[in-house]
Amino acid sequence: MIMESLSNTPSLRRRGTLLAVAAGLAIFAAALQLRADEPYARTRDYDLQHSRIALRFDLEQKKVLGDVTHSLSILRDGTSKIAFDSVGLTIQSVTVNKTAAKFETTADKLIVPLPSAAKAGEKFEIAIRYEGKPTKGLYFILPDKDYPDRPKQIWTQGESEDTRYYLPTYDYPNDRLTTDTIITVPASWITVANGKLINVSDAGKGLKIWTWKESVPSSTYLITVVAGEFDEVKDSWQGKPVTYYAPKGRGDRLPVNYSRTPAMIDLFSKKLGVDYPWEKYAQSMVDDFVAGGMENSSATTNTSSSLNHAKIAAELTTNEDGLISHELGHQWFGDLVTCKDWGDIWLNEGFATFMDYMWIEAHYPKDQSEYERWQNARGWFEEGNLYAKPIVRHDFDDSSEFDGNAYTKGGWVLYMLRHQLGEEAFYHGLKHYLEVNRGKNVVTADLAKAMEEATHTNVDQFFSQWLYGAGAPKFELSYAYDNEKHQVAVTVKQTQKVEGRVGIFTVPVDVEITNATGPKLYPITVTKANQIFTFPSDSAPLLVLFDKGGHTLKSAEFHKEKKEWLYQLKNATEFSDRADAVVALGKIKGDEEVVAALGETLRNEKAWGVRATAADTLGQLGGASTSKQLLEALNTANEPWVRNRIVNALGNFKDDAAITTKLEAIAKQDNSYRARSSALQALGRLKAPNAFATLEFAVASDSPDDYLRIAALRSFGPLGDDKAVPLLQQWSAAGKPIESRTAAINSLARLQKDNKDITKQISAYLMEPHFPVRMAAIFALGGRGDATAIPALEALLSSGDLSIEMAPMIKGQIERLKKPADGKPGAGAGPREAGGDGEKQSTDQRLDKLEHLLQEMSERLKSMEKRLPPQKQ
Ligand SMILES: [Zn+2]
After folding, report:
1. Separation of CA 156 and ligand 1 centre (Å)
2. pTM of this prediction?
3. N or C: which end of the chain has fewer CB within 10 A?
């Protein structure tokens, strides 16, 4: 699964793996009182083997009318009752083997007593007739007075434990079943469910019945139903149907964003040596989706915000490929082979992250995947709350198990395993893992066992430190050259604090020594907290690289002289070594040689990620000569993904008329919408003299996907000019496009902080059915600092009408309002205006730093969205 972003500037949508960054910072220490997912797999009394699920809908009342027949087999002698998960559903009747049966319901269970104690192996058919108005699990997206033209959509979201809100069933991953899904809908609708479409028949009264059959067993959280007014585009892979669905009217957006799917299926099938395992592959893009994407077996659901306008798609380095490859990767890892419990969720999410790398490596220039991996490592280290937790953990009641460890670190661990085992052995191992566990539930030990069986390499130590242990090595490095012995002595220290689950790491790395005669590579293995490695060298080295190519998840502080970093920037052959040099040089302030070298890199470096990082770094260094480098680079930087970063960097130069003039010009006219969007945001951040008029003009102008309007609305917040209030109120209002609204709400909350009417207006949005609007309102209120919003947030929290991950975020914002760091309730200054308070200040600094990282990371997978709070700018 990929979670939805709150961010509503398309170019700044976030990667999936960053949920915890935001959640961690926003929640502070708020403990979750709501139910956390069950960490351990349940003990089972029965094996649910097949479900016939017949659903009808009452659109008026947003009701689901269900008839489900479960075929199950008893696992335990003496079982006298069957318990199903069922929340908020009204059970009308139950039959056991076609005979009417008694039943009981509790807050979260339907309990059906059996006629007598059953024996293991005994089979039962239990039919349940029920109805309900689901608060989760199944969602009705319907036209209303504010959005009368909206295509009708009904969709489900089961993961992690929400299927039980619309279907009484066994709702934990450690059971697998086949399904028949029978959906009755208006004749003009389309439906999508798991498996093969068997039949569409006329049911009279303007209705049709769609019958889907899934004959490959999978877990109940992967059950899906999508129904509504959709456009369809048909494709295929090796004779299997590959279909794409968009809300009616947006079908023309499907090919540009989704047509690479068959090529991905092909690549994954070949690399894994296991063909795509399901009978078809459908991707349904739905409005107001509560996640970015969800890998239901054979039928993924994605957010409709992945349906980019072709002009915007062309400005994204890998467009929606990150989202598409992530969810497709799950069809093997997650669906065919499923984590047994949520504590092993990385076996789903880490692999999906890795499968995304696999596609990017195969389909784009090498430096694209290298840049993503390099950034992911930096991003993971920035998420301080992850470091002490192991990837495999069962104590997640105070946080989500869907965190940056499961996603980012999980993907990195698989990358390292591949690097250490070698391509051939690694994929041989994965094939074996998939084959022996096909159709089964797994824990991490099953992967270790399969890898060892296939490769005869013991991976226990690797699994122990990277998966059951926490953290990653933090290296401090230096070296000395001995003129007499002709030796380079490299001192390697691991500086991470050894405590809890964090230990000293054993890692193989390559050290490369370059001297006058050229480079030489030496593989070493670091095993201790403090070690010295010596290498022969005829002359003093020009460059020493530790972990050449950056194949280890680590942080490293390498004490080198400026001239060596400059040499590394220019001459290192690998992406990560040059990118590291940019970052290291960025710490040397006020040095013209450094500025010139970074400017040169910005113009001429071959990898765009290094160029973009150089732009960021120049922006942070500041000073007249750096802005000159940035302005000059604009003349030749044509790729939108570099151009926007240069423009963004220019947004750091306050009170510089030449720069604001340039930004004004770009905001109004440029080949790149992303650059224009960055210019609009930079102008707001700089509080530039003419910014108000420029932003106002952009709000009034049309652009593909409202790209510029959204950027301008978002920029009014940082601009901080109260004159914008009426305009923002207008664009926040119901009826305006949802993405424009979320941007406007975010900015509105930052203006006229004493105006209780604004707080009231935003509070009212909490009760709207539109998920993105709600999320925007939650974070806007938290940031606004007006404690009068607390009751509205508390009311939402206790409504129970919450989607995954929403509850902890609301609690976090309530905490923020209750405890403003300056101690004055309700004061809540915006982060840039924060005074000298220590705690507040450091949090803001972290947020700023985070924001910067997020901006860098946004290059990638714009659609891999998570719920992040609105940006601090
Ligand atoms: Zn996922």
Report:
1. 16
2. 0.91
3. C
